[in-house]
Design brief:
Layout: H1 7-19, H2 22-29, H3 33-47, E1 52-55, E2 58-61, H4 63-82
Antiparallel strand pairs: 1-2
Helix pairs in contact: 1-2, 1-3, 1-4, 2-3
Length: 83
């Protein structure tokens, strides 16, 4: 797997996790809720793990999702430092 292709998905995941909502993440990113959902689904399929629990009230992190979020926040920090 070419992991560099996963970076946008990881960043989208981090925003969803931080906002607790696909809708709020989509609004923040300027893309559709459907596009956000699709990217999360692709990320989960590629990684072979579930990172989010979805409910009608929003999303919550799985145990693995919590660990992944920590790593994604490090990536976000590094991107900010690069710019």
């Amino acid at each position: 797997m070419n992991n560099i292709k996963q970076l946008p998905r990881l960043m989208i995941f981090a925003i969803v996790a931080q906002k607790g909502s696909f809708t709020q993440a989509a609004d923040s990113l300027g893309i559709t809720k459907s596009a956000v959902s699709q990217q999360i689904k692709l990320l989960e399929n590629e990684m072979g793990i579930r990172v989010l629990n979805r409910t009608t009230r929003g999303v919550s992190l799985t145990a693995l999702g919590e660990k992944l979020l920590v790593r994604c926040q490090i990536l976000q920090d590094q991107v900010e430092l690069a710019y």
